[in-house]
Amino acid sequence: VQLQASGGGLVQAGGSLRLSCALSGIAPSAYAIGWFRQAPGKEREGISCISMGGNIHYADSVKGRFAIPRDNARNTGYLQMKSLEPEDTATYYCAATVSGAYYSPGYACAEEGRMDYWGKGTLVTVSS
User: Fold this and answer.
1) Per-residue model confidence as pLDDT tens digits over 8-47
2) C-beta of residue 118 within 8 angstroms of C-beta of residue 3
3) Mean pLDDT over residues 113-117, rounded?
4) DSSP E strands: which ranges in 13-121?
5) Of 61, 17, 20, 60, nearest to 39 (Cα)?
6) Of 127, 101, 118, 99, which Cα lies nearest the Cα of 46?
7) Which pLDDT score, from 0 to 100, does residue 29 have?
8) Which long-range contacts (CB under 8 A, 24 or more apart) does 64-70 make?
9) Angstrom distance (rounded) from CA 119 to CA 126
């Protein structure tokens, strides 16, 4: 199983960005997807997860600004980010779990160890 995250870059505060996570080697829709981020000097945190059934969790820090659609036909997940703030600057990681596909998305996001597969991070920098 491989996950390929892309779409990071430099954006001004208030701007938008969309990250993509392409999955391969895994049956379409047979997994939950999570997006995690690690800011400089901080621990990695789960910010949004979507279960196989489509239930979604957002961390309070991104609620109302981020969305996590998934395209099962393309085996791809997305993190749509708007109203970006300098505090959103971080390396963003997508992850997937098959064993926890039906986890509550809040439960899945709470502990990175609940994810089975990880992609390499993509850096998002928000300038003020």
Assistant:
1) 999 999 999 999 999 999 988 789 999 999 999 999 999 9
2) yes
3) 95
4) 17-24, 32-38, 45-50, 56-58, 66-67, 70-71, 76-81, 90-97, 117-118
5) 61
6) 118
7) 79
8) 68/33, 68/35, 70/29, 70/33
9) 21
